[in-house]
Amino acid sequence: MSEISQKELDGFRADARAWFSENVPAKPEFMMPLTFMEVGTDQQFDFLRGWQKKVYEAGYLGAAWPKKYGGGGLAQALQDIATQEMYRAGGPIMLNAIGLNWAGPLILDMGTDEQRNQYIKGILSAEDIWCQGFSEPDHGSDLGAAQTRAVRDGDDYVINGSKIWTTQGNYAKYMILLARTNPDAQRKYDGLSFFLAPMTVPGVDTVPIRKLTGEYGFTQTFFTDARIPATTLMGGEGKGWQVAMRTLEYERGARGGQAGGYVMVYPDVSKVVDLAKRAMRNGRPAFDDPAIRERLVKLLTTYRGLKLNSTRALIAPLVRDRPLSLPLSAKLVRSEFYREINQLAMAMQGPHGAYYVGEPEAYDDAIWQRSYLNSFSATIGGGTSQIQHNIIGEHVLGLPKS
Ligand SMILES: Cc1cc2nc3c(=O)[nH]c(=O)nc-3n(C[C@H](O)[C@H](O)[C@H](O)COP(=O)(O)OP(=O)(O)OC[C@H]3O[C@@H](n4cnc5c(N)ncnc54)[C@H](O)[C@@H]3O)c2cc1C
User: Fold this and answer.
1) I need a labelling partner for 302 at 20 to 30 A (CA). Which of 101, 108, 189, 231 fits?
2) Percent of the chain beyond pLDDT 90?
3) Ligand 1 atom closest to 382 (CA)
4) Are 38 and 374 in contact (CB under 8 A)?
5) What is the residue-wise DSSP string for 48-85?
């Protein structure tokens, strides 16, 4: 693709800025989810689905995905600008997170032309919501031991078993499903296959699971003799582990190609300083406490470091020695950072930290409390922080497998 001039970039930014300032919807009266993992009511779902469709139709989502499958066919730099302007204008999150960020890029990357034609447009428009069926009640971190069975029967596979923590499972039309096609394979990984499974066939049932904030967002998903077409297999029978690992690279942000937009909104980090000046702790503003100030400075320095690292990752000579270090550590450091900054915001409030959403005494309508409780999600989903440490140890530092 030819280089884009600064004038074109600036023009695109000006258009995007104008569009978002006119089109970002007013804050609804109902509580909005902070992330795609807390979409729990039909009201929230319909609102966010409508918003994603509108952004896509305006050309500000999937702008860099190929035109022939429903994308905009533009440069990634333009999609990045659109995302920045969306954030600047305070736009709501994109709903179809799994479709936009991992199923979609995976289908573009490894799918057949037919699969791309079938699925990509519906992902962008939010017509087709996607979920992910990897974790099972007894197999989360140990994903390679997944037991949900897929048995070939004519032109179909018959699925039996259960997946858990299925984000948006009750709204999804499709699931990226990891299931066992060969229980006798010598290596457990070789017995797995990967499917772009429809959720609308008989024999698929979802039961919502409540989170510690009282919100919903994921389900346990049961398969009872659910028949899915064999054409939904991706990567070939017995090759599911390789496809799943590629999916996790997209999910953890270690591989680019996502559609754009954002799917989580935590409180603005810069506002934590403002909170420190307002929140009273032992009768004085938290900001007056040197221990709080020290933690604050450390975390704000980390935040700055994270931002600089994103830029550094784009400059090849700076990451040549350990090219995987930044991509593989991004999920770990970001998710732990947000948990810590929210934890500090709670600590600053002293006993006030016990007030919750709707209570007049709570600072900022308890956004920090809610955000703190929800911030654990990202440190677990997509692989826990301990697992990310293992990955960095093995694949970046070259340590032996434990
Ligand atoms: C909000 C949320 C949304 C999610 N959405 C989805 C989804 O859409 N689809 C889906 O498939 N899954 C989803 N998950 C599930 C998630 O991927 C799993 O919870 C995660 O992989 C951990 O698995 P587990 O819960 O079985 O914990 P376990 O694997 O039982 O782990 C328990 C503890 O042991 C530690 N541990 C385990 N093995 C090791 C090891 N080898 N080395 C060091 N420590 C270890 C873990 O770090 C953890 O602290 C979601 C989870 C959350 C919290």
Assistant:
1) 101
2) 88
3) 17
4) yes
5) HHHHHHHHHHTT-SSTTS-GGGTS----HHHHHHHHHH
For the CA of 98, the closest atom of ligand 1 is 8
232-259 residue pLDDT tens: 999 999 999 999 999 999 999 889 999 9
Query: How many whole angstroms from 195 Cα to the centroid of ligand 1?
Result: 21
| Centre of ligand 1 from the C-alpha of residue 3, in Å | 42
Confidence of residue 1 (pLDDT cuts 50, 70, 90): low
Ligand 1 site-directed mutation target among 100, 139, 141, 392, most atoms within 8 Å of CB = 141
Non-local (6+) Cβ contacts of 80 within 8 A are 260
| 326 Cα: distance to centroid of ligand 1 (angstroms) | 22
Residue corresponding to tokens 């997509």 = 382
Tokens for 193? Answer: 């296959």
Contact 16, 82 (CB under 8 A): yes
pLDDT at 273: 94
Which are the contacts of 4, defined by CB distance < 8 A and separation ≥ 6? 75, 77, 78
Structural domains of the chain, ranges and CATH numbers in brackets: 6-125 (1.10.540.10), 130-251 (2.40.110.10), 271-396 (1.20.140.10)
Q: Give, for ligand 1, the residue of 135, 374, 376 to mutate: max count of ligand atoms closer than 8 Å to Cβ.
A: 135
CB 193 less than 6 A from any atom of ligand 1: no
If you take atom 30 of ligand 1, which residue's CA is the nearest one? 140
Confidence bin at 269 (pLDDT 50/70/90): confident
Q: Which of 251, 294, 336, 361 is catalytic?
A: 251
How far apart (Å, rounded) are the C-alpha atoms in residues 401 and 397?
Answer: 11
Model confidence at 2, in pLDDT bands (50, 70, 90)?
Answer: low
Residue among 212, 216, 270 nearest 31 (CA):
216
Whether 89 is in the pocket of ligand 1, judged by its Cβ within 6 Å, is no
H/E element holding 220? strand 216-229
Does ligand 1 lie within 6 Å of residue 171's CB atom? no
**Nearest ligand 1 atom, CA 143:** 21
